[in-house]
Structure formats: C-alpha cells, structure tokens
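Lab notes, practical 5.
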Amino acid sequence: MMAILTLNIVFSNILSYYLITQFLKWDIKKVKNYKGEDIPTSGGIVFIIVQFLMSMILYTFTREKLFILLNLFGILAIGIIGLIDDVFGQKNIKGFKGHFSCFLRGNLTTGFLKAIIGFFVSFFISYTKNSHDLKELIIDTFFICLSINALNILDIRPGRACKFYIIFCLIGLLKLFFMKNYNIIMTIFPILFSVIVFLSFDLKEKVMMGDTGANVLGLHLGILFSWILSSKYKIIILFFLLFLNIFAEKFSISKILDNIGGRKIWKKGPVS
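Output from the prediction step:
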C-alpha cells in the first residue's frame, strides 16, 4: 500500500509538471485576464490527463472501483464540455439566466449545453450510486450539479480556485483518514497534486485552468463529499451551494472578495 501511495504521489507530480510545461508550448487559445493581459486558457486539461492515467493504474490496486469509474466518467464528460466552452464559448453571455434566455430564443450556447450535460452527468453518477434510495438520489444529483459551477464562480483571480479546491480537498482527505478509507484517499491524490503543481503556474499568471479545469475540480469535490457525508450535512451544503449560484447571478463574488481584502489573501501577485 505504501509503495503504491508513494508511486502515486511522485508520478502525479512529475507528470503534472511535464504536461503543464509542454502545454505552454502549444498554440493555445488565449483570453484576457483581470489585468487585460492575454493568458493561455484551458490549462485544466492537465488535471484530466493525470487523473485518467493514474486511475487506470489505481483501478488494479484498489477496492473502490465504483468510485474510480464514476469519478473518471464525470471528469472526462465535464472536462470535455468545459474545453468546448473555453474554445467556442460565447463569453459575452453571463450566468445561467443569460444562457437560458438565449436557448428560449432558439440559440443553443455552450454555457447552456454545459449546464444540461452537467445535470445529466450528476444524475447518472448519483443514480449508479443510489438507485435504491430516491432521497439520496435527489440530494446527490443537485449536490454534484451545483458543485460543478462553484469553483468556476471563484476562478477569476490567479490561484483562487486552486486554493479553495486544495483546502476543501484536504478536509475531505481528513474525513477519509478518520473513516480509514485509504483506497479513496489514493484515488484523490493524482488530481490533488496536479492542482498543487498547477498552482505555481497559475500564481505566476502563465496559464489559466479555464472552465476545463474549474468545472472538473468542482465536480470532483461534489463527488467526493457526496460519497463521504451524511444526508444531513449534504443538505446544509446544498442550500449554501444554491445560494452561492443564485447570488453569483446578480453580484460579482470576485469583487466582493477583493473589497474585503480577499485579493491580499488569495493572491499575493506574480511569483518571480
């Protein structure tokens, strides 16, 4: 077990660093950041590749095969639609309300497509896990679905989404440690260490994770906590996620965090 764990951590770090440095050499679509500078986007594809390769290895050595398969399916599905949104998305249309209004006028946007696919992916994962329990099925479906967009809301300033993900992922790992579920812990390490490596590039403003990465990280947290929390705690978090998504439709959370000092907390500026 310890040998697999060590290999998991070392390989995830090396592979992540290699992929990011190679990714930056490609002819990648660039978008303007909050400073108006052109930055390569869709860097979150690195998370998907690392998790995919490591999941194939871990599937052989762990007993949590259902978690691995559902987690991998969700990451691939949401990652692909996130990449499509990064490359072809209509950035002048904001929020679900804006995309839904376009759909009612007969225009299918990538944002609306992302929301619909996110819902059905969440439902499929929840149904596979809870087909015998209607209450859990409903809770988990909306819990995962709303989690997908949560980190996307925060991915406005360098490093912010990565840091939120790392903090909550570590909380999940602590819970798993007390549950003595070391198999799921091993399946989480690839994407966690990939994000840790990516964070240094994000803070230096060399690359953005884009919806490709933010949606994947949100989904990953949603699946993780839907797996380890009781219904009571999931319902509490579900209401918070619902509030967060509705609030973000009307107000800029990034500006609020900046105004209360969030910019100093979450971003210290480019790292030399």
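Observations recorded by the TA: The CA atoms of residues 23 and 43 lie 7 Å apart. The beta strands are 30-32, 38-40.
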